[in-house]
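1st attempt posting a full record on here, be nice pls
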Amino acid sequence: MRRARFLKVVLTATTGVMMFSASAISAPLQHGAGVAAAAPAVTEKVWCRYGNCDGGAAVGGLVGGLIGGVIAAGAANAAAQQEAAAAQQHAASCAQRYRSYDPASNTFQAKDGRRYPCQ
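the predicted structure (as tokens):
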């Protein structure tokens, strides 16, 4: 229950970010001299106390990877639950049709004595 709530919060936040970034993605691109004029002529390298402060990209990649992993794990879990439910429904249907149904082998025994797979 707690995991499902966390997944819901993550998906809601991801959807919100995607909705607000759509306008920036669809904005027209600037061509020619406008881009060159907008860029600063000189860039300044900022140093932290213990070295270069380029950890922002690493943190962003880590957070993005974690969110992607949570989404993928949730999708895999949902698919596994659906597959298990389908298998259980199949076994119940076969057991209802054939009295000799064996769920371990997914077979039933016909009148001729041979076992056949339940379809």
